[in-house]
TrEMBL record:
It holds the Pfam family SSL_N. Belongs to the strictosidine synthase family. Residues 217-290 form the Strictosidine synthase conserved region domain. It comes from Tribonema minus. GO terms for cellular component: endomembrane system. Residues 1-21 form the signal peptide. The lineage of its organism: Eukaryota, Sar, Stramenopiles, Ochrophyta, PX clade. GO terms for molecular function: hydrolase activity. Gene3D superfamilies: TolB, C-terminal domain. InterPro entries: 6-blade_b-propeller_TolB-like (IPR011042), Strictosidine_synth_cons-reg (IPR018119). Keywords: Glycoprotein, Phosphoprotein, Signal. This is Strictosidine synthase conserved region domain-containing protein.
Length: 460
């Protein structure tokens, strides 16, 4: 290579280094190191690829954008929250779609002045059209401000005892919809004005326990009438979840909301993207820690509101580094083959050959398994190198490099053993965030935070 060629190569390398360095200096990323990243699992045995999801029927295409999670009503109806801020209801076959609530409309100044009950009244009509158009555009020209104005309902839970559908919005907190009164809504707490306090430990608790919530994700009603709620990040809002995923930092928390006094308490901190949560047998909380590819379990007794400063909760809340789990938290399922999203209990006798044992259905938003996992590769990189790769490619392009793949796991809810998995290697139904096996029709319903449809399939 001649001198002129070497000079041109040096200039090109220097220019590229300058551009990457400039991008890094402006980047909002703060990558967190992971010293013991596991090898991606192999897909064999119960994880062996199959084609169960390939023949899924796509329902309500472009009418249901981003059906993130499901809740089952007393009459077998299905509820889901959408990217345009609506909550919709379907029958037990996933048909006859009907809108029952619109977060953005309900919270708008016009609807508040009009005393609106659901946000579907005339006062919210214009905003609803705007939000539907933005959702269908699927990130083209969208912004965090638009998503916040429209609302983003994520976690849902129906409680038959008081005929109430509880809706957790990523930005706006918790709502209660009275099903017996045409889904008339009331806001139980506003995330913008309700700052959590540590459940125990007082002044010794880490500052992260008191940070405002930014990304409410899922909820579960405890036997004592309080709600367990996951906050995926105290730094990034839901709209910027790609940045939180690339950071893989311990900014997630488990919170408890008490409707009796309106308090919001931090029970666990230092989680790497706290995601789906369910309560098993009324005694144990199961939590998806997405960016550690695992499901955690913690006894509710260890999270008791009366535990006091000497409790395991108090000790855990003095450190939120994510370096190690508190002693009262154990791993139920480790090194799962992807980004574990929502958790859904399936009735005993469901699929997976569990011999009558209750199972746990997990939507896997992103497949991460051998022979190659982009997420594992990124987490292996030192923080500076990870920042450089993201600065060079950008979060959106990196997301496009992730293979489109549909995957649902079914675990034994007691042991965490994977008993079955359902795949779509073609990517026709990719990025599954949730799966619900309907107890009467037998359909497996599939939701996604990204897909512009919900799907149903006959699965084992």
């Amino acid at each position: 290579m001649g001198g002129q060629s070497l000079l041109l190569l040096a200039i090109a390398v220097a220019a590229l280094g300058y551009m990457v360095g400039k991008r890094i200096s402006k980047s909002p990323l703060e990558p967190f190191p992971w010293s013991q990243v596991p090898s991606p699992p192999s897909l064999h045995g119960a994880l062996a690829p199959n084609e169960v999801l390939i023949n899924a029927e796509l329902l309500h295409v472009n009418e249901t954008v981003g059906p993130e999670a499901f809740a089952l009503g007393a009459d077998g109806s299905i509820y889901t929250g959408l990217a345009d801020g609506r909550v919709v209801m379907l029958n037990d076959r996933g048909e006859d779609l009907r809108t029952v609530f619109f977060v953005g409309g309900f919270l708008s100044s016009q609807c508040r002045e009009a005393g609106a009950k659901t946000g579907l009244e005339e006062c919210g009509k214009e905003l609803r059209a705007e939000c539907s158009a933005a959702a269908r555009a699927r990130n083209r020209g969208a912004s965090e401000d638009t998503e916040r104005r429209c609302g983003r309902p994520l976690g849902l839970q129906f409680v038959a005892s008081n005929a109430t559908l509880y809706v957790l919005d990523a930005y706006h907190g918790l709502f209660a919809l009275d099903v017996s009164a045409r889904h008339a809504a009331r806001q139980l707490f506003d995330a913008a004005s309700t700052v959590p306090e540590p459940a125990a430990g007082g002044a010794r608790a880490h500052r992260d326990t008191r940070r405002p919530v930014r990304f409410l994700n899922d909820l579960a009603l405890a036997p004592d009438g309080t709600f367990l709620i996951t906050d995926s990040s105290w730094k990034h809002a839901r709209f910027n979840n790609r940045l939180e995923i690339l950071d893989a930092a311990p900014r997630g928390r488990l919170l408890r909301f008490d409707p009796a006094d309106g308090s919001l308490k931090t029970l666990l901190c230092g989680l790497h993207f706290a995601n789906g949560v369910v309560i098993r047998n009324g005694t144990t909380a199961l939590i998806a820690e997405s960016l550690r590819f695992r499901v955690l379990e913690v006894p509710l007794a260890a999270l008791s509101a009366d535990a006091g400063d000497a409790s395991a909760t108090a000790a855990a809340l003095t450190r939120c580094s994510g370096a190690a789990l508190p002693p009262h938290v154990r791993v139920l399922a480790a090194n799962l083959p992807g980004f574990a999203d929502n958790l859904e209990e399936s009735a005993p006798g469901g699929g997976g050959g569990g011999g009558g044992a209750a199972t746990l259905l997990i939507g896997v938003g992103t497949r991460a398994a051998k022979p190659f996992s982009l997420l594992h590769y990124m987490f292996w990189l030192p923080p500076a190198a990870r920042s450089a790769v993201v600065a060079l490619l950008g979060p959106v392009l990196m997301e496009r490099l992730i293979p489109r793949y549909g995957l649902v796991l079914e675990l034994n809810a007691q042991t965490g053993e994977v008993q079955a998995s359902y795949h779509d290697p073609t990517g026709r139904v990719p990025f599954v965030s949730t799966a619900l096996r309907h107890p009467t029709t037998g359909y497996l319903f599939l939701g996604s935070s990204q897909n512009p449809f919900l799907a149903r399939v006959r699965a084992p």
